[in-house]
Amino acid sequence: MNPILSPRAARNDYPHTWDELKARIAEAKRATDAEIIPLGATIIEIEGVSILEVMCVTDLVADDAEMPATGMRFRVPLRDPLQSQQVH
Q: What is the pTM of this model?
């Protein structure tokens, strides 16, 4: 299992990918008028493609749930190499 990254670590390690992810979250916020807060991120692999998956909490409530918050996941293919391991 891959380690869970904080949103800050994910943003620092994968800045271009994070920018795309941030745009997707902003689009979801506009479409739903909801608060969407990133809690953690991890790198997963789907069919050989490395993906940054970010877990979020939102104030959207599903019709069949009585919980005050719901989880959402956003996935974006990695666009850049790991920044913290690059030699400058």
A: 0.79
